[in-house]
Design a protein that fits this description.
Layout (H helix, E strand, L loop, with lengths): L9 H10 L6 H14 L4 E8 L4 E7 L10 E3 L4 H8 L4 E3 L2 H7 L3 H6 L4 E9 L2 E10 L6 H13 L1 H7 L1
Antiparallel strand pairs: 1-2, 1-6, 2-3, 4-5, 5-6
Length: 165
């Protein structure tokens, strides 16, 4: 029998290695930013944590801290997006400016940054969405294959989200 060796994904390895560093969660978030920019692509990348009791989201990381600084908070209104991403743990793909307009109150700011599509990838633990990785890019950038590619990166963010909430 011939054994086929599989090579580990270098981006996943880099993110996993960053988890072990002392400068947390900054090292992990920066590694996720770099890896996801290379593997999937994004212009804007944020990491949010969710508090199910208060119904609020808090921004833990942003690659564009000017318009989207870390520490920003917002109350999330119930609706189809929160039901899908937060309640059911499904990724959300918005492919156009119109998709973003129906979901995000800050759609004009998003568009001003050259972003017209989004992938919101939930980070889950014990059947609950604890946060999300949010990738935004030009129109029609994201597809279903990006959900599968993003999932292991999202789950690698879990320890930082659990200790930050």
């Amino acid at each position: 029998m011939i054994r086929t060796k599989h090579r580990a994904d270098p981006w996943l390895c880099a993110v996993a290695a960053a988890q072990g560093g002392p400068d947390q969660p900054d090292a992990l978030f920066a590694a996720l930013d770099e890896a996801l920019k290379s593997v999937i692509g994004h212009k804007l990348f944020t990491i949010l944590t969710y508090d199910g009791d208060s119904g609020e989201a808090a921004r833990l990381y942003s690659n564009l801290p000017g318009p989207y600084p870390a520490g920003g908070r917002k109350r999330l209104a119930p609706g189809p997006w929160t039901e899908a991403v937060l309640d059911r743990g499904e990724a959300y793909i918005g492919r156009t400016k119109d998709d973003l307009r129906t979901v995000f109150s800050d759609h004009e700011l998003i568009a001003s940054l050259g972003c017209e599509s989004v992938l919101n990838m939930p980070v889950r633990w014990c059947g609950r969405t604890r946060g999300s990785l949010n990738l935004l890019h030009e129109a029609r950038w994201y597809g279903e294959d990006d959900v599968a590619a993003c999932l292991p990166f999202a789950q690698l963010a879990l320890p930082a989200l659990l200790t930050s909430s």
